## 1
Amino acid sequence: MQSAGRLYYVDALRVFAFALLIVYHSSVAFFPDMNWLLKSTEGSETLSLVMKHPRAWRLALLFFVSGMGTWFVFRSSGGLGFLKERFLRLFVPLIFAMCVIVVPQVWYERIWEDGYEGSLPAFWLTRYFTEGKYPEGNFTWAHMWFVGYLVVMCFVCYPVFRLLGHPAMRPVADWFEKKASGDAIYLFFLLPLVLNLALTPFFPRQTNALVNDGAWFATWASWFGLGFLVAKHHAAVIGAIVARRHVSLGLSLTCAAYLYVYSWTDAGRLFIGDYDQMTPLFKILLFALAWSMILALVGYFALYFNRSSTTLAWLNRKIFPLYIVHQTVVVAALFYVLPLDAGMWTKFVLVLAATVVGSLLFAILADRLPSALKPLVGLVDRAGRAPAADKPVGAKA
């Protein structure tokens, strides 16, 4: 049993989720079976296979953790203050990133793919805003689609958030707490799965473009909503999640084993689909893996990382500006590293190291901006506070 305190583990889980994303994005250019912004002529099947596992749940985890954080913001801000806070914290940096931070990504890509010879300022002022939307044009939100989706979710779900706090919704809250405290919690992945399967005929492709991405927007919104609900009813459900952490991990490993045998490799005789051919059976295993992995991570992090840490507080404050810039740093690193006379693994390590150092340096400098400019990179001029716990986090071993 841990001592009572604030939910530091939510911050730790958030840092972990974004750190994993940075590792993943640093490796994509070296996947033989995937095209990316800049692609290495030398790839690694091993690296691709290893990364297929986090690919299955990394985005679900990000939206889930964001949903948890949204509950704490909603609880502390309340009313229209919540919408104002989300606008400043999410929408302002989204627009700034689309107009400034993302531009070098497209510039490097145009040089790499099309032989563009102009400077970055020339590209920014004469081509980026005037030639239409990416990929045919240049204007894009790139990796910031994640933030764009969060903005829409917060504003669209705001009435639902208010409704959930009404006394008339207490029976719904009781039902959720009862199911989430028992084995039925493992069936919650059916919400994003059913929505995805039902909407796929109308929105067959995952686009990350919002307007034509209904099936996957519903999926991400479901993970987001589940995170919100788990945080809202944290005191009632966290003990059961922690107690089942080993079971959750076992289920996630079992799903992963099936996917590796029957989808991600040629080990099995039966092919059940993959990321390019998302059959219903493939999605069932994929979503079950994502949910069981989320539950396992929440269980382990709540038990072992729910403690105060100066390093964690420092990283948690830096993680959003670090996310905002990381993909631009990845692309820049690839542009200069890929032509080097070095082995593939050396190049990968160089790209990853450059991304971590470059992104962290940007985040440190961003935190030293004048107060009026900090919202451009998703910062407020005060140290972030860890969300408060309702009771101690603990479980039987």
## 2
Amino acid sequence: MSPIFPCKGCGTFIERSSQHYRRVKGQVLCSTCSDAQRRELALQQRSALARLWSRLKTLVR
């Protein structure tokens, strides 16, 4: 049986392996918080690319 850890994002107790806990240095996230974090990161990267693309378009004109 895997140990139970609190999610860093919402505090929900989740079951994860000790190896996973050590790999993420204690920053364990539940699947809901993990998905939200990935979605936020993707939006940030997309907006950065959009800014770069608009700058390139103005330089080419």
